[in-house]
Amino acid sequence: MGLRLEPTARQVRLAVELRRLREAAGLKAREAAALLGVSSTQINQIEYGHSGVSEKRLRSLAAHYACMDEVFIDALVAMATDRTRGWWEKYRAQLPSAFLDLAELEHHATYRADVECLHVPGLLQTEDYARAVFAYRVPELPADDLELRVRHRVERRVIIERPTPVPYEAVIHEAALRIRVSDRAAARAQLTHILELSEADHISVRVIPFDRDGFAGAWNTMMLSGGAVPKLDSAQRDGPEGTALVDSEAQLGALRTLFRKLEGESLNPDRSRDFINRLAKEL
Q1: pTM
Q2: Which end of the chain is more exposed for a tag (fewer CB within 10 A), N or C?
């Protein structure tokens, strides 16, 4: 098997978890290599996602690392042996790898949650809304590249529209619902689209209104994605250098707590639907 030149975020996450297990066991890479009878270079390649790892070798590593969490080990094995080539693969070499990584992450997610204060979450965006967002980029995208991004964003909705959909919750600030990224008709269509989606049992949309006292969290934007076990949850946050995936247990714990805080400051789903319906009628 050749080395991977550009491992996916999922492959890197598996590699990170194996490195964390080794470090928790107090072993150096060369010591782990000796236990398996391989070179330390091979261990390094596995731990940076540049090489795959078989189920047999992964379970052997877990045993040497004294990991007793069988459910966690099984989840890692599933990640290591997964050969899924999803719909996002057709965009490889056409879109930045981050787009494909997000689609793959969502495909395997056990739940998804978003917090947005300035834009409608991507999974809820209409085609016109997404096109307006991507068209605002400077420098402008070539027409073909823009349409690729729009199609990819629309196709991501498969996880909440398929026969076995992923449970999804969105917390959206009123500002995001009122900002017109396009024209009045597109804004009305976007609100109507959110209302239609929110009728599904597996989708919960909650709104934080402008008149909510004590809300100082407008800077918070996050995406939470559930892994096969909580240890494998992921989060994505926007920052000055762009978006970044978060996978450390401490940071994930803080983001889960922050999400619950923001959720508590929002209207419940029924009141949120009424709120969005009123906004749509104002347009």
Answers
A1: 0.93
A2: N
